[in-house]
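Hi team,

As requested, here is the filled-out complex form for the protoporphyrin IX containing FE run. I kept the field names the same as last time so the parser does not choke. Let me know if anything looks off before we queue the next batch.

— J.
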Amino acid sequence: MYDTVNRDTIHHLVHEFYALVLKDDLVGPFFINSLGSDLENGKWHEHLHTLDNFWLLMMIGKPGYSGDPFPPHAFLGPIPIEAFERWLELFKETTEKYFIPSIADKFYKKAEIIAEQFIENLGLNDEDDDDD
Ligand code: HEM
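And here is what came back:
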C-alpha cells in the first residue's frame, strides 16, 4: 500500500486502472475505439502519460497537465450515465487497492466531482431538469 503520491505511485495506479477498464464490457469499448486494446501501444502510452500528469496536478498541484479534460469526452459517441458510474466504481476499487484510505479517498472525491461535471456537460442528468 502506497502512502505517498508521486509520479511512480500515480503511474502504477493509472496503468492498473486502465488495464481493468479495458476488460470491462461497459466502459472498455469506448477506450478500445479511441486508443486500441493494447496498453503498450503508442496511443495508450501517450494517454497514460497525460493521465499521470493530470493526476499529479489534481492530487499534489504539480504543474504538467495544461489541457482541458472535458472536450475529448464530447466526441466519444453517447456515453451512458451507467458507464460513468462503472468508471467511478473501478477507479474506487483501484485506488483502494494501491493507496492508504486517506489518499484513496482524496483520489475518489476528485474523480467524482469531475465525473459529475462531465455528466452535467453531456446533459445526462435528465431527472434534474426541473431544478431551476
Ligand atoms: C465512462 C467514462 C469515461 C470514458 C468512456 C472516458 C474515455 C476517454 C477517452 C477515450 C479518452 C482519450 C481521448 C483521446 O485521446 O482520443 C479520454 C481522455 C481523458 N479522460 Fe476520460 N473517460 C471517462 C471518464 C473520465 C473521468 C471521470 C475523468 C476524470 C476524473 C477522465 C479524465 C480524462 C482526461 C484527463 C483525459 C485526457 C484529456 C486530454 O487529452 O487532455 N475521464 N477519456
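Two things worth flagging: The chain has a mean pLDDT of 95. The CA atoms of residues 27 and 109 lie 20 Å apart.

Thanks,
J.
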